[in-house]
Design a protein that fits this description.
Layout: H1 7-30, H2 34-53
Biased composition (Basic and acidic residues): 10-28, 40-61
Region (Disordered): 1-61
Protein name: DUF4169 family protein
Amino acid sequence: MADIVNLNRFRKDKERAEKAAKAVENRAAHGRTKASKTADTAREKKAKTKLDQHRLDKDET
């Protein structure tokens, strides 16, 4: 016979795991220094401009 499972406990354990995963994401996104955020923004902007410069079709309108 199968074991009896408490669904409330399962639900609460699942919510705790989801909350912990979200906390990890928030620490990664919001737990950085201003210099780190600025460097990432500059790196993304540089990559975007480099990609745009290598486009074959400049006008797609």
